[in-house]
Amino acid sequence: MNGTVLKVICLTSALVFISNVSADTALIVKELQVRKELEFALIDLLNGIMRSEVITCITILSDTVYLGVFEGTLFKRTITVPFVMIVVEESEDLLSPNYDTLESLRQSRKDGCNVYVIILANGLQVARLLKFGDRYRILDTRAKYIMLHDIRLFHSKLHYIWKRIVNVIFLKYHKTIKGNVRAWFDLSTVPFPNPIKGIFISRRVDIWRNGKFHYGRDLFADKTADLSNEVLNVVYYDHVPSVIVIKSNESSKVGGVEIEVSK
Questions:
Q1: Element housing 173 (H / E)
Q2: Which segment of the chain is annotated as a signal peptide (predicted)?
Q3: How far is residue 135's CA from residue 129's CA, in Å, rounded to a whole number?
């Protein structure tokens, strides 16, 4: 086994709900050809990240609608790296995840997974997951994120999330039109370091079409390298370190925050 690297795929018990996918939903996904195109786009995205970055492991969150995207082809055609795969129910409230989902997220954080692929049909589920993950530090906000573009993620109540998660790519699917133009994905990200003023408008990074990226840009370029003269607000607290002893000829005075708290 020396020198052998295995892909580890952990599936939660939520997988048993696959049979509950409605026929209508399956037909919609098939009609739009999302599964096939999305699968190939993710393969190129993940391989691109792994060629340029050190990836510890990848956490995938999906539902029964998009579960078909993560078939054997994706794992066979991506560079070898451990995967943690979590399949959630369509009705699960991710602001309060069930035990299996929560423990899988905790384990992936403990294992140091630094890429999250969140492909869920319900944007509200994603929004609630992000709120929960940020509130309880379940998600690593410094990691890289790939998720579907959904207007519900850009509500003003979620703007604070996109000041903390800045290494993110949103995938927006565009249908095939008449002629030889095939379906394509628009890849966008948060406008950081530019502030979000009122309305969230994502910034295009690249376009994926016909199995390749149009511009070939670095999708996860360091956004903190150049803050474009934006003002960075910093919160600080006055703190007298440890205990201070002031000696004089007649007496010694002890001070410091710790002393004040103990009074």
A1: strand 168-174
A2: 1-23
A3: 10
Could you state, in order of their start, the residue ranges of all structural domains in the chain? 13-225
Q: Which parts of the chain sit beneath pLDDT 50?
A: 1-23, 26-27, 29-31
83-87/58-62 β-pairing = parallel
Nearest-CA neighbor of 170 among 179, 181, 182, 158?
158
User: What pLDDT is stored for residue 71 in this prediction?
Assistant: 82
pTM of the full structure: 0.78
Half-sphere exposure of 149 (CA within 13 A, CB side): 18
Q: Please, which residues bridge with residue 184 across strands?
A: 174, 209
CA atoms lying within 13 Å on the CB side of residue 180:
0
- CB neighbour list of residue 203: distance below 8 Å, 6 or more residues apart: 188, 189, 190, 191
What pLDDT, on a 0 to 100 scale, did the predictor assign at position 2?
Answer: 44
Helix H or strand E segment including 36? helix 34-52
What distance in Å separates the CA atoms of residue 236 and residue 163, rounded to the nearest whole number? 18
pLDDT at 124: 96
The SS3 call for residue 259 is helix
Whether the Cβ atoms of residue 118 and residue 70 lie closer than 8 Å to each other:
no
CATH 3.30.450.20, domain 13-225, yes or no:
no
In angstroms, the first-to-last Cα distance of the chain is 61
pLDDT at 96: 96
Q: How many other C-beta atoms can be found within 10 angstroms of the C-beta atom of residue 110?
A: 8
pLDDT score for 239: 67
